[in-house]
């Protein structure tokens, strides 16, 4: 491996870690300003998915949307229910399936959570040079492209892992 390849490898890890830290700090600022419950990135995403499903969403659909296991989604739903952010009801269609819907508190928390993140990031942007802000915002399409590529890699690796476990 060349020095350039080693440097890129190191920067790749730092980049991924930095993205997580940016999310964490933005959500911490949002929680603090709005006296909101501590939502992990997965909980915030799950709440957004439940809110965006106009007629509700089943735990199976949520697991599929978020590419998580059923037990992982069950734990996530439990945390959201504990905080009074979502509720479950039986499906009127088959009477067996559970449908998740946001509570009034869930709608309030999500709106204020997003608003708090917007406020925190805008405040941080206001202390940065216009050039740096333009570079960050201008790189959003590249980040979306990176996400697509990482999704493809993850799907490939997940498929290969499934193939290996099936042949064992």
Description:
The structure is a single chain. The protein is mainly α and 168 residues long. The chain has two domains: 29-104 and 111-127, Arc Repressor Mutant, subunit A (Orthogonal Bundle), CATH 1.10.10.10; 129-168. Helix content is 74%, strand content 6%. The chain contains seven helices and two strands, in the order H-H-H-H-E-E-H-H-H. The protein has helices at 3-34, 41-52, 59-66, 70-82, 104-126, 130-138, 140-167; strands spanning 86-90, 98-102. Strands 1-2 form a two-stranded antiparallel ribbon. A hairpin with a 7-residue loop joins strand 1 (86-90) and strand 2. Helix 1 (3-34) crosses helix 5 (104-126), helix 2 (41-52) packs across helix 4 and helix 3 crosses helix 4 (70-82). The longest helix is centred in the first third of the chain and has 32 residues, at 3-34. The chain is flat and about 60 Å long. It starts with a helix and ends with a helix.
pLDDT averaged residue by residue: 87
Instruction: Kindly provide the radius of gyration, computed on alpha-carbon positions and rounded to a whole number of angstroms.
Output: 19 Å
The coarse silhouette is flat
- Biggest pleated sheet: 2 strands, antiparallel
The CATH topology of the largest domain = Arc Repressor Mutant, subunit A
The helix/strand class is mainly alpha
Domain module tally: 2
CATH superfamily name of the largest domain? Winged helix-like DNA-binding domain superfamily/Winged helix DNA-binding domain
Helix content: over 70%
CATH architecture of the largest domain: Orthogonal Bundle
What are the secondary-structure elements, in order, as H or E?
A: HHHHEEHHH
Number of helices: 7
Low-confidence region ranges: none
Strand runs, count: 2
What's the arrangement of strands in the largest beta sheet?
A: 1-2
**CA distance, first residue to last residue:** 33 Å
CATH C-level category of the largest domain:
Mainly Alpha
Strand content: 5-15%
